[in-house]
Design goal:
Length: 351
């Protein structure tokens, strides 16, 4: 005979026997008083597994009717059920939380071990706000958990991503003199005309790209960094000197997100990393942790994309970025610019 429970609000309540048979053996639900409370996702799964029967308004709900009722009670219920069922079938013990699930490590369970993951559940179609991600990252940092994002696509396949903060560091030390030369701002890049200075910047700092043997082209962020650090002077084609405010203002007309990019570029350089354009990978920068002076480096370590505090992720774009980074053996990092800059890695997770 099936264990019988009653749907009240968004909770299914069962008696003491359910605590013995469902919670104490398989860790479904949460004991309350003399009974057991199940979430909607747990209840749907147990109805599907023919473990329980649920009564509402004096009538038993079969799986279809319960699913429809739960979908009316909870936003995106079907997404949570899909993820819950998948994790259970993978052998994980899983408990509901406010916005997702707590996942216990293999070999662990509620009452024996702390949960290992905090899992957020969403659809590929739902925009994902950076502000929400920040809140969850702060929460899991305080709780010493790992954050997993479960994205359900339109065919109900699930992709799991782990998101974690990182403090990227490199070993490159920039050693250049001040006011080496004057560069000219052209359309959307600067030109260093002095052959000796061009060679120093290229060989000692991995700046720019040599157009020929004596002339070095610099990107806007590279030029701004060298200007701001007193390494290079910059003038326009009319030979008018540009300070940081003047140059960054002109650059921002060319690239609307220039100042965000520049702040991330500067932060990476100051951390001993060497950023170069990531255009071929669809990101702002490819980044090297280590660089031997004069070496012809071919493999970078990270792809880094700069975003502002109001950023809204398209999960389809995020999926493409992470997959590309994995395919070229790099890690995908987002650099969020606010009063400070913080970095976080998003990577595929195999459960």
């Amino acid at each position: 005979m099936l264990l019988q429970g009653e749907l009240t609000g968004n909770i299914v309540t069962l008696g003491r026997q359910a605590t013995e048979e469902l919670h104490n053996t398989s860790f479904y639900g949460r004991p309350r008083g003399d009974g057991l409370e199940l979430s909607l996702a747990e209840s749907a799964y147990l109805i599907y597994m023919e473990k329980i029967a649920v009564i509402f308004d004096g009538k038993e709900l079969d799986f279809k009717r319960f699913f429809l009722k739960a979908s009316a009670l909870a936003n995106n219920f079907e997404l949570f059920y899909i993820v819950y069922k998948d994790m259970r079938e993978r052998g994980y013990y899983i408990q509901p939380s406010v916005t997702g699930f707590r996942i216990y490590p293999r070999g662990g369970h509620p009452g024996k071990t702390p949960s290992e993951f905090f899992m957020l559940v969403t659809s590929e179609r739902i925009p994902f706000l950076l502000s929400d991600l920040n809140r969850h990252l702060d929460t899991i940092d305080n709780l010493k958990k790992r954050l997993v994002l479960a994205i359900v696509d339109e065919e109900s396949d699930i992709t799991y991503y782990e998101i974690r903060k990182i403090i990227p560091k490199g070993s490159y030390e920039l050693e250049l003199g001040t006011s080496l030369s004057v560069a000219t701002l052209l359309e959307d890049r600067c030109m260093v005309w002095d052959p000796e200075v061009s060679g120093i910047l290229k060989q000692s700092g991995f700046f720019g790209k040599l157009m020929d043997e004596g002339h070095l082209q610099l990107s806007l962020v590279e030029s701004c960094y060298l200007l701001n650090n007193g390494i290079l002077k910059i003038e326009n084609r009319d030979r008018e000197k540009l300070d940081f405010a003047g140059f960054s203002g002109l650059a921002s007309r060319i690239e609307s997100d220039f100042l965000i990019k520049y702040r991330v570029y500067e932060e990476l350089r100051n951390r001993g990393l060497v950023p170069k354009t990531g255009f071929k990978f669809g990101t702002h920068f490819r980044v090297y942790k280590k660089l031997e002076t004069g070496a012809n480096v071919s493999h970078s370590d990270y792809l880094v994309h700069a975003i502002d505090k109001n950023h809204v992720f398209s999960l389809q774009q995020l999926s493409r970025a992470v997959r590309l980074a994995n395919s070229v053996r790099k890690e995908m990092i987002y650099a969020a610019v606010n009063t400070k800059i913080y970095f976080f890695i998003i990577g595929r997770m195999r459960l």
